[in-house]
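INFO batch 0412 | record 1 of 1 | parsing
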Amino acid sequence: MTTSTRGASAPAVLVLEDGRTFRGRAYGAVGETFGEAVFSTGMTGYQETLTDPSYHRQVVVMTAPHIGNTGVNDEDPESERIWVSGYVVRDPARTPSNWRSRRSLDEELAAQGVVGISGIDTRALTRHLRERGAMRVGIFSGAAIAEEGALLSKVRAAPQMKGADLSGEVATEEAYVVPAIGTKKFTVAAIDLGIKGMTPHRMAERGIEVHVLPATATARDIYAVGPDGVFFSNGPGDPATADHPVALMRAVLERSTPLFGICFGNQILGRALGFGTFKLKYGHRGINQPVQDRTTGKVEVTAHNHGFAVDAPLDAPSDTPYGRAEVSHVCLNDNVVEGLRLLDRPAFSVQYHPEAAAGPHDAAYLFDRFVSLMEGQRA
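INFO prediction complete | emitting tokens
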């Protein structure tokens, strides 16, 4: 990605790898950027989306037409930087209005070198991606604009998401601790594969001291903190490349330590149990996805950000090296596996985001379920 300073008046062009082109105006930094084009259906929470490490190397198309109304504040980021490689909006706010706003979204994108485009028909672009699937894309603005054939060649030369090993690029390099809020009840070792800031906070609210460890952590590193439970986070990339996290999770399963995984962590659990993973046509992204908890029958409105899924049988439990496992949650839109649960060991995972800083909070009970596993193991 190459960028220059902010330039809202500069022309911009978005080029998909199948040759479809959209023309608009620069939004954020001016220059060029590449990534996988995906769409997010959230009407709010754009700041959390931008700073979610799971969006690393993705160009996010917002389906809601008006973006930037509440500006940018210093309280809502999920990490220390914006991770999306590009941003696409239809009608950016001219003037943000919110009592917590410190600057405009356009200014924040430019300050962090994120190339975006505005003023295009995002409805048409979203429909195109729904029909053709997520694909590589480039955004070019200002002096980066050239003949369309040359731009298309650049897009097609960019790396694909399938086969991408990205969690090590977004994870912490040094371990750190998020202290429990109030009385400490448990200690959890959290493997950072692209963890969001709200995740350890949700655990801390429940009296858990969270030791966040790098993606390169070993089993010895995990058990050195004396954990009551182990957590595997969300993260970017293709789970088929995540051999080290899979081996690490198997070491945890061997010791029957209570285990909870979210998003990428769900895919890691799937692989650890012997299931395969596959790339979805266009993925699930946004904050309004219906998921059924099959253990209770309850339907939750949930926050998602994943382009890969676990290939596991929906109709009956499966035998695995760690006992029986079943699909615990399923997406009601397309029957994609949204959760796994071991029946003979204390381990479960979900594909979506129960920490959901921007909402909804229907799935917050999953952190309580993790606490119950640790209480049961201690008893």
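INFO post-check: The two ends are 53 Å apart (CA to CA).
INFO record closed
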